Amino acid sequence: MTDKDNALFTTIRQPQNLRSGLADTLMAQIESGDLKPGQRLPTEQAIMAATGVSRTIVREALATLRAKGLITTHQGLGAFVSDDPTPRSFSIIPTDLQSIDEVLRVLELRMGVEYEAAGLAALRRTQEDIDRMQDRLDALDRALEEGGYGAEEDYAFHRSILVATQNSYYGRLFDTFGNIMVPRQWARLDRMTTSERKRHAARMRREHRAIFTAIRDGNESAARRAVRSHLSKSAARFEELRGSSLS
């Protein structure tokens, strides 16, 4: 490894999520062409020395790049930038959501997508779509009543809204994310009292019900408002969690 190669890895600021910070740094260097297709990456030890992070953080960052198709590894030779490092499709993988800051960024993305989707669904939904959304909503209600996270049911309900747009690209976009769009690991239900969990479940039911009712009734503006309100309140709750974790 040459000094020029190692010079690419200047010490990065250590953010709250070190793995995410290192992965973002490497991705930026690949996307900018500083790290070229086929180029061998510095060794784990060299990256550790240049960035000041642990071996575990380095390995997790490299795993993220592999999952995104940006690098390949060859046993005994090390890691190399992929011949075609441009991602063929956008994706969010579980290791992307290792901090509340990342969750909030995903919620911003969801708000942009689902705000428009809810309006289209209100205009285009069929009776079959309404029945599907009702089934998904009932399943979410049961999961919450039983004290569960309801992440899979929550995801299924939101996806049924995208399907109701009659634009398959919305559903396909959500499918690239899967139910990690509802990051249960940050819900912290295990830290809630029984009464807090009941209030949380009631709030979730109320917010989702408002979305469903607006779409069912064909009220485009109300559907958009309901989705925006729901996701904005979710973001506010995560902001509160971040504040409590720092205190």
From TrEMBL:
GO molecular function: DNA binding; DNA-binding transcription factor activity
Domain of life assignment: Bacteria
InterPro entries in the cross-refs: GntR_C, TF_FadR/GntR_C, Tscrpt_reg_HTH_GntR, WH-like_DNA-bd_sf, WH_DNA-bd_sf
Stored PROSITE patterns: HTH_GNTR
Residue ranges of domain HTH gntR-type in the record: 16-84
SMART domains, sorted: FCD, HTH_GNTR
Residues of the signal peptide: none
Pfam family, one: GntR
Keywords per UniProt: DNA-binding, Transcription, Transcription regulation
Keyword Transcription: yes
Name under which the protein is recorded: DNA-binding transcriptional regulator, FadR family
